[in-house]
Design a protein that fits this description.
Layout (H helix, E strand, L loop, with lengths): L1 E2 L5 H23 L5 E5 L6 E4 L4 E4 L3 E5 L6 H19 L4 E2 H10 L7 H15 L8 E2 L5 E3 L2 E4 L9 E3 L7 E2 L2 H4 L2 E5 L3 E5 L2 H9 L2 H4 L2 E5 L6 H14 L3 E4 L4 H12 L16 E4 L2 H6 L5 E2 L2 H12 L6 H13 L1 E2 L12 H15 L1
Parallel strand pairs: 6-7, 13-14, 13-15, 15-16
Antiparallel strand pairs: 1-12, 2-5, 3-4, 8-11, 8-14, 9-10, 9-12, 17-18
């Protein structure tokens, strides 16, 4: 059994510290009779590059300035200051909010956003300025995923602080939300993480007791995994030392679901704690369509266009990725995880899963 403890208190304290330093800096500027201004890393595409060192996209050295002295900056500058204030209030009071809540809450303060995408973009600016993700200052998306398996956690949130829960406690899995992502890891007997794109297969794996047969924690990704889920998977890998295996549909979109967990996305290039570089895309591969004679569909023109994009992406340069992209292009077919049901409801658990895990572990 592995005994690991992790506290979120220090992280929360540092978030508050950086937000307060930002506010104090603006105050000092006004005290000196200057227009308040904020310098932050540029998130423009020409300032994003792939870093072999970090094995993800990162921001370059280019900076941008938002200043109250520029009339064109007044609106986004005001929005940014309010969002930072709101983030501080949430963190200081240990309250959570969703991206949608932030959009509507702004109206109560007389802050105007034309739509939620504009509000979301300002929240990303706050992340860039203070160097922490929105989840660290308690702003979450509404989408959720789930986890099931033998892991005991201890909550750190108010009213539940100190309470423990084993993640086999609910037959549908436990939602990966704010309370779980900030919890301490206490004890686990698992020696791996199996992440699954589809909810139906996640349920099937629970029914077939994959967590016991393969000594695994099961994570339901719900398609493209939410950032909180990617952060949680990284914690499982980094803090518990558990290897991560990702199972997605056999198409370019399934490949990308796995790659975002492994090396992040350009949209999150300003963040460092959302990736699990040593996680393995474990299938379904294009070659599996041939090897297992799986039912498949024809690739669309959009699928083929996406494959060409992935082939040029530096994150997909390794042999496995290039091999599978080439096979996709050759056979021009795709399939879903559920295709294994052709051979019976338990075939994927009884045959495919043990064969693939053995192959990747050897």
């Amino acid at each position: 059994m592995k005994e690991i403890r992790f506290s979120a208190r220090r992280r929360r304290k540092e978030v508050l510290n950086r937000l307060e330093r930002l506010g104090y800096k603006l105050y000092q500027q006004m005290e000196r009779g200057e227009f308040p201004a904020i310098d932050m890393p540029s998130r423009s595409t020409d300032n994003i590059y792939y870093s072999p060192e970090y094995r993800q996209y990162v921001l370059g050295e280019k900076k941008v300035r938002r200043s109250a002295g520029n009339i064109r900056h007044l609106r986004p500058f005001t929005q940014l200051i309010w969002a930072a204030y709101f983030a501080h209030e949430l963190t200081a009071n240990q309250k959570t909010s969703t991206l949608r809540d932030v959009y509507y809450s702004a109206q109560a303060y007389g802050i105007s956003f034309k739509d939620q995408p504009e509000s979301n973009d300002i929240i990303t600016d706050v992340e860039t300025v203070i160097g922490f993700s929105r989840e660290d200052f308690n702003i979450f998306p509404e989408e959720s995923s789930a986890i099931f398996g033998d892991l005991t956690i201890e909550y750190t949130i108010p009213n539940y602080e100190g309470k423990r829960l084993n993640l086999t406690s609910h037959p549908d899995g436990v939602m990966i939300g704010p309370a779980l992502t900030s919890a301490e890891f206490i004890e686990t007997s698992a020696d791996k993480v199996i992440a699954i794109e589809k909810g139906g297969l996640f349920t099937r794996f629970i029914e077939e007791r994959v967590h016991e047969k393969f000594n695994a924690l099961l994570v339901y990704l719900r398609g493209q995994a939410p950032r909180s889920t990617r952060y949680f998977i990284r914690r499982l890998n980094q803090e518990l030392g558990l290897p991560v295996y990702i199972f997605s549909d056999a198409d370019p979109w399934g490949m990308h679901i796995a790659m975002v967990i492994i090396s992040g996305s350009a949209n999150a290039a300003h963040l460092r704690e959302l990736t699990t570089p040593d996680a393995k895309w474990s299938g379904v591969w294009a070659s599996d369509i041939i090897s297992y004679k799986l039912p498949s569909d024809k690739l669309t023109d959009l699928d083929i266009k996406r494959l060409h994009e992935l082939k040029r992406d530096p994150r997909y340069k390794d042999k496995l990725w290039q091999r599978e992209i080439n096979i996709f292009m050759k056979i021009k077919r795709k399939c879903e995880l559920e295709a294994f049901s052709r051979y019976g409801l338990t075939h994927i658990v009884d045959k495919y899963l043990p064969e693939r895990l053995k192959q990747l572990e050897d």
